């Protein structure tokens, strides 16, 4: 259905005697036919008829007669009186009709708004459950859902779990004793270990229903987030969503929902503003973290338990605060020396951890972009026992190790290579997002995660790297490149000639027969060029039509591109502003981050290059590359220009992802 149209559906002919603003425990059971009419699968219908607690073994039952074990009684208080009465009024708790049952006490927790939430302590009962693995969405997923320029709306369900009925025969396992009265719960309780999984299966189905109606939505348990580029359309979609939810039996918390399209919205504990492209901590959360850290900083004392609270706060905040992860690594290191078996034992906080706590006090208000920046510069490095090498854009650098550096661990050498290459190109890289490619997974991880806890020396080196980057406003994006495709930087680190890969004429002629003869080879030398007109990488190549393919816009009817593999991200970036068609030869590496962009550009299925031991030559050595047996190359016909049509759709079919062999 096109977005913005009205929603004709069989719900209009169905009615149920439930007040949309007043919750009755387990009320979804009265809406089974509505869900069935809307196409809910049998597994979902089974849950809303009455959820059967998934026991792996039957819990032992107690006779429900006086006196009862004190450990199973709910402590009485005026606040608990209010909550129990409310639960009874809503039929969440009913008089217990069973002779035996499994008793658990209630307790109260404070909600963010200061109100109380009753929780049943099911720790003992949970030991008898058989649990399924499942994944909830988290704040890390939101940037993939949002689009720049989105307006946002939010819909929250009221007392969400209490909508889901418990099978009557299983209600005895949720028995509660309070002030000489025995109750049982009729609906899904907070505290049941299987509750998040089963509840999310219901709201995920609802979200899938909304998506079929053209609504862009994501849901975390009972919290729906809607997004649309058009505020008027989003307003109608938000109202439609409320109506659908109410017709399905849900009680919508209108006070907590945001139905008027907004430029920014708080969701999953973070304020998101897709139009201005920033995310931030809500003021309330900033205040809570600030006050806690300030008390710790003033006391200069902590314990194992306190360190876990600090790291819990900071690991969440680091998603928002720039360089946040880097500035809690020393706190992590220091906390490792605290005695876990004495979680409350206090000790003095080391200075290096104190300095990072101090940094956080001044950083909590900072914002960061929602959407990762597109790389504007490209850096590839490698290190060996001989030295280090780097390619920055198309400039090459190399260096040998000093005596003290020769003893370094290879990970430290690789990280130093990144920092040294950065330092040698500060004016070139200033104020840019730099894609850093390395064949060392530890280095990539330490850049991506802003440090780690495996090596203190490596952490200190990555701190120096980020310090240099911060001074020149350089953003770092770490990506892994397999060593067999990192020959450029590898040869530089070993003080060898740069590789110059070239396909045999047999292969190129077959490709040309399929797609035409290119007018230019954009990455070549006089020896390796597949057509007379070529662009060279070296300024010393006087036969080249021009030097540095990236120095000019690409406007060709058909061009040949077989670049060193580390340059492929930059090639795909340059194609955004290109015109014409291009034959692009790349490694078959489907898990690489740039693969979806490549597939999206394809205008024909790729051709696999066979027999590389015979058909791939490194002109620098006159032989195939050392790892030729492990290489796998594809030739793609791709187009230049933007990947998006004006209506936001992708004009290229992704069905071209499967290659065929080059036909002889």
Automatic annotation (TrEMBL):
<dbReference type="InterPro" id="IPR043502">
    <property type="entry name" value="DNA/RNA_pol_sf"/>
</dbReference>
<dbReference type="InterPro" id="IPR000477">
    <property type="entry name" value="RT_dom"/>
</dbReference>
<protein>
    <submittedName>
        <fullName>Enzymatic polyprotein</fullName>
    </submittedName>
</protein>
<dbReference type="GO" id="GO:0071897">
    <property type="term" value="P:DNA biosynthetic process"/>
</dbReference>
<dbReference type="InterPro" id="IPR052055">
    <property type="entry name" value="Hepadnavirus_pol/RT"/>
</dbReference>
<dbReference type="InterPro" id="IPR043128">
    <property type="entry name" value="Rev_trsase/Diguanyl_cyclase"/>
</dbReference>
<dbReference type="Pfam" id="PF00078">
    <property type="entry name" value="RVT_1"/>
</dbReference>
<feature type="domain" description="Reverse transcriptase">
    <location>
        <begin position="90"/>
        <end position="272"/>
    </location>
</feature>
């Amino acid at each position: 259905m096109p977005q913005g149209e009205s929603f004709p559906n069989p719900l209009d002919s169905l009615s149920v005697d439930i007040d949309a603003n007043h919750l009755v425990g387990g009320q979804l059971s009265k809406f089974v036919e509505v869900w069935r009419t809307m196409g809910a699968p049998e597994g979902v219908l089974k849950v809303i008829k009455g959820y059967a607690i998934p026991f792996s073994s039957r819990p032992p039952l107690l006779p429900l007669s006086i006196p009862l074990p004190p450990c199973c009684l709910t402590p009485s208080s005026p606040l608990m009186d209010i909550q129990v009465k409310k639960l009874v009024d809503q039929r969440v708790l009913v008089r217990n009709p069973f002779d035996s049952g499994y008793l658990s006490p209630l307790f109260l927790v404070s909600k963010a708004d200061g109100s109380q939430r009753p929780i049943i302590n099911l720790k003992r009962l949970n030991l008898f459950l058989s649990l399924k693995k499942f994944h909830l969405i988290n704040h890390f997923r939101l940037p993939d859902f949002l689009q720049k320029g989105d307006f946002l709306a939010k819909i929250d369900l009221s007392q969400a779990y209490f909508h889901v009925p418990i099978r009557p025969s299983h209600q005895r396992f949720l028995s509660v004793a309070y002030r000489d009265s025995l109750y049982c719960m009729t609906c899904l309780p907070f505290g049941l270990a299987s509750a998040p999984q089963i509840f999310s299966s219901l709201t995920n189905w609802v979200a899938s229903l909304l998506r079929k109606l053209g609504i862009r939505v994501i849901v975390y348990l009972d919290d729906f987030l809607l997004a649309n580029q058009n505020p008027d359309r989003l307003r109608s979609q938000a109202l439609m969503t409320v109506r659908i939810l109410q017709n399905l039996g849900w009680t919508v918390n209108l006070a907590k929902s945001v139905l008027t399209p907004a430029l920014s919205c708080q969701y999953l504990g973070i304020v998101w503003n897709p139009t201005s492209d920033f995310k931030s901590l809500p003021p309330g959360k900033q205040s809570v973290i600030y006050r806690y850290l300030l008390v710790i900083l003033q006391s200069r004392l902590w314990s194992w338990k306190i360190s876990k609270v600090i790291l819990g706060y900071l690991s969440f905040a680091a998603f928002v605060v720039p360089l946040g992860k880097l500035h809690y690594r020393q706190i992590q290191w220091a906390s490792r020396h605290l005695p876990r078996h004495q979680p409350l034992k206090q000790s003095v906080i080391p200075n290096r951890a104190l300095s990072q706590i101090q940094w956080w006090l001044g950083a909590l208000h900072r914002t960061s972009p929602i959407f990762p920046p597109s790389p504007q510069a490209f850096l590839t490095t490698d290190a060996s026992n001989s030295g280090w090498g780097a390619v920055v854009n198309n400039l090459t650098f190399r260096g040998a190790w000093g005596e003290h550096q020769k003893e370094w661990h290879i990970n430290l050498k690789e990280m130093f290579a990144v920092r040294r290459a950065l330092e040698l190109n500060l004016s070139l890289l200033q104020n840019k997002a730099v894609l850093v490619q390395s064949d060392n997974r530890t280095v990539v991880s330490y850049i991506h995660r802003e440090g780690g806890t495996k090596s203190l020396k490596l952490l200190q080196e990555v701190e120096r790297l980020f310090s240099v980057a911060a001074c020149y406003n350089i953003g770092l994006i770490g990506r892994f490149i397999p060593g067999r495709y990192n020959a450029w930087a590898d040869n530089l680190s070993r003080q060898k000639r740069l590789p110059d890969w070239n396909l045999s004429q047999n292969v190129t002629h077959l490709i040309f027969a399929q797609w035409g003869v290119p007018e230019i080879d954009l990455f070549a030398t006089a020896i390796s060029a597949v057509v007379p007109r070529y662009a060279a990488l070296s300024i010393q190549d006087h036969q080249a039509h021009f030097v540095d393919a990236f120095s000019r816009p690409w406007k060709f009817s058909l061009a040949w591109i077989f670049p060193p593999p580390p340059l492929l991200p930059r090639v795909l970036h340059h194609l955004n502003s290109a015109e014409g068609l291009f034959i692009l030869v790349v490694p078959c590496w489907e898990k690489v981050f740039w693969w979806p962009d490549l597939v999206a550009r394809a205008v024909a299925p790729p051709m696999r290059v066979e027999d590389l031991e015979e058909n791939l030559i490194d002109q620098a050595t006159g032989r195939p590359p050392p790892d030729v047996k492990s290489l796998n190359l594809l030739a793609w016909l791709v187009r230049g220009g933007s990947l998006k049509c004006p209506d936001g759709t992708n004009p290229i079919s992704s069905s071209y992802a499967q290659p065929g062999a080059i036909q002889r």
